[in-house]
Amino acid sequence: MRTAQYGEIGEAADVLDIVDCPHPVTGPGEVRVRVKASGVNPSDVKIRSGHIPSPWGFPRTPHSDGAGVIDAVGEGVDPARIGERVWIFNAAWGRTTGTAGEYVVVPENFTAPLHDDISFEIGACLGIPASTALHALTLNGDIRGKTVLVAGGAGAVGHYAVQFARQLGAARILATVSSSEKAELARLAGADRVINYRTEDTLQVIMDATSGAGVDLIVEVDLSVNVNLDVAALAKEGRLVAYGSSEREFKMPFSKSILKNIGFDFFILYHLPKARRQEICQRVNDLIAQGNIVHNIAEVLPLHSIVQAHERVESGSAIGNIVLAV
C-alpha cells in the first residue's frame, strides 16, 4: 500500500516521502480502515518538526485524524463493523502509524461513526478541529446565556467553536480575526461581533460589546500572544480555555488573574480520558446531525502532495482545514 512516512524530525520537504509498504494487520480490539481522507493539523506538523516532543519510534506515518471505511477487524471486535464509515482520531499520537496512507489499524475506540451524508473530507476534520472546539466550550459546563470570545474565529478550530457556541445556547459570541476575508467567515458562522485585531482596539471593542463586564469564556488558540489581553477581557469568575500557544514558556499575569478569580484550563485532546473522548465524539456527531454546520475546508490535496500540505499548515496561509485525499 502507499503511505507517507518520515524517518527523522525535520522540515517537510527534507523528511517526508511516499513509500510502498505491506498492508497492516489487526490485533485484538483493533480495526483496519481503508482511509479515504487524512486531516493535516497543526499538531501533526509540530510533531514532525520537533516543536512538540514525540519520544516514539521511526519511521512514522503522520496524521491523527482521518476518515474511511472499516475493512477488517481484530479479535473481540464485532464483525458487523466491517463496511462501516468512520472518522478516526488519535491515530498518530504515541504511535508510528497515522492516517496518511491507504490503510491504518487503530484501536476500535479510536473511531466514531460517520453519517452517510457527511463526506470523508469533512470526517477528516472532526477528530481535532471539531472535537477541540466542543471540548473547549463545554469543559466548564453549560454555556447557555454566556458571552463567549473565540480567538481565531475563522480558523480550523475557531470556526467550529463559533458555530457550536451558537448551537449550545451562548447569549453572545465574539470572535477575533486578522483580515476582512476571515471576518466574513466568522460572521457567517454566527459571531455577533467580529473584531479585526489588526485594525481595531480589541479590548475596547470587547468592553463596549459587553457594557464593560467582559466575557465569560475565552477559547484561545495562542495563549502566549494573547494572555494579557485575555485576562483583561474576562469577566470576574471568567474562564480561559487554551488549546494552543506559539511559545512554550511565557509570563502569566497572576495578580490580575487571581483578583478576578479567573480560571485557566489548558489541554491537549490526545490525553482526554476515554469516557470524555467518547462523549465528545457523540456530541460532535449530534451537533452536526442538527444541520446548519459549515465545514471550512480550505483545500483538498492528493496524498503525494503531503509536503505542500504540511507547508501550507505551517505557514498559516490556509483559512480552514487542509485535507489529503487518499
Task: Compile the SSE list and pairings.
Layout: E1 2-6, H1 12-15, E2 16-20, E3 30-40, H2 42-49, E4 65-73, E5 85-88, E6 103-107, E7 111-113, H3 120-123, H4 126-138, E8 147-151, H5 156-167, E9 172-177, H6 180-189, E10 193-196, H7 202-209, E11 215-220, H8 223-233, E12 234-242, H9 254-259, E13 263-266, H10 274-289, E14 297-302, H11 306-315, E15 321-325
Helix pairs in contact: 2-11, 4-5, 4-10
Domain Enoyl reductase (ER): 12-324
Protein name: NADPH:quinone reductase
Keywords: NADP
Question: In words, what does this structure look like?
Answer:
The chain has 326 residues and is an alpha/beta fold. The protein has two domains: 2-125 and 295-325, Quinone Oxidoreductase, Chain A, domain 1; 129-269, Quinone Oxidoreductase, Chain A, domain 1, CATH 3.90.180. 31% of the residues lie in helices and 27% in strands. The chain has helices spanning 12-15, 42-49, 120-123, 126-138, 156-167, 180-189, 202-209, 223-233, 254-259, 274-289, 306-315, and strands spanning 2-6, 16-20, 30-40, 65-73, 85-88, 103-107, 111-113, 147-151, 172-177, 193-196, 215-220, 234-242, 263-266, 297-302, 321-325. β9 (172-177), α6 and β10 form a beta-alpha-beta unit. α4 packs across α10 (274-289). It is globular, with a radius of gyration of 20 Å. The chain starts with a strand and ends with a strand.
